[in-house]
Amino acid sequence: MTGGSPLIVGNWKMNGTQSTLSELDAIEAEGAHRRVKVVICPPATLIATAAAVAKEIEIGAQDCHAGNGVAFTGKLSPAMLFDAGARWVIVGHSECRACAGETDDTVREKAERALEAGLAVIVCVGEPKEARDRGRENAVVLSQLTASIPTLAGAALTIAYEPIWAIGTGMTPTSTQIEHMHALIRRALIDLYGAAGQSLPILYGGSANGSNAAQLLSIAGVGGLLVGGASLSAESFLPIVQAAAARREQQLCSVTSRRIKNEIN
Predict the structure, then answer these.
(1) Torsion region of 59: left, alpha or beta (phi above 0 gives left; psi -120 to 50 gives alpha)
(2) What pLDDT is stored for residue 169 in this prediction?
(3) What's phi and psi for 152, nearest 5 deg?
(4) Which residues are catalytic?
(5) DSSP SS3 for 38
(6) Whole-angstrom Cα distance, residue 23 to residue 213?
(7) Residue ranges of the chain with pLDDT lower than 50?
(8) Helix (H/G/I), strand (E/B), else coil: 3
(9) Can you list the alpha helix ranges (DSSP code H) found in the chain?
(10) Distance (Å, rounded) from C-alpha 172 to C-alpha 167?
(11) Do the Cβ atoms of 59 and 40 come closer than 8 Å?
(12) CA-CA-CA-CA dihedral for 220, 222, 227, 231, to nearest 10
């Protein structure tokens, strides 16, 4: 995990009604979220209400349309989402790429328009199982990354590595595989953005849950988690937030110990 506070993002996908928003109250009541950054991305129908209900948790959107002021029936522009109360948006999610035929160019355009509207952007990249089986996971992820992210970096950009074969399957890559991919993405960000690429968060997404969160967050380069099904209830989501908070405390204690040791020496 990087030096900053971990980022835990819950993507509710096509789940949630008004009654579900009580889960936000339960998450905030526990208090662990104060030591990490927590973002919940409910369906678009709940964004405005969720933004009004949430006191400290930030609210995001699951997707957006690149058009602004153009007549696309049923689509939502970044400006509309910001007006509704969203402060984050996920773009390039594997389901959008696979099922909606979304291209890297489309993802990049969405990201650019979202940043212009004031939204923090999470750009998703990840390989299908066939690519990993053929040893092409590096090439696939790097191709997606370089073509999907905005030309200019900013503090409001986050990358999420989500191997498609691990999403909702209960399967996760090995720690070595995750560390390797996050290091690969980090090097690419530095190549593309220079020093600014060093500080952009890189999340892991793919069957993250309360049982494996601590282990995932301990992997070098993992700056947080993009959580799917386990984010739908406070009962399953809070252990993830608590694991992130504990990891942050360990990190801060380690920094303090090193500083004291340096002062003594």
Answers:
(1) beta
(2) 83
(3) -105, 130
(4) 93, 162
(5) strand
(6) 19
(7) 1-2
(8) coil
(9) 22-30, 47-53, 78-84, 94-99, 104-116, 129-133, 137-148, 175-193, 213-217, 234-264
(10) 8
(11) yes
(12) 80
CA angle 44, 78, 222 (to 5 degrees): 80
Residue 61 corresponds to which tokens in the numbers above? 């959107």
Domains located in the chain, CATH noted: 7-264 (3.20.20.70)
Residue type, 157: L
- pTM of this prediction exceeds 0.85: yes
CB 38 within 8 A of CB 248: no
Locus of tokens 């409001």: 156
Contact present, 172 and 203 (Cβ < 8 Å): no
Quick one: pLDDT at residue 262? 64
Contact 119, 156 (CB under 8 A): yes
- In this structure, the strands spanning 7-11 and 202-205 are unpaired
**Residue 189 burial by Cβ neighbours in a 10 Å radius (0-12, 13-18, 19+):** buried
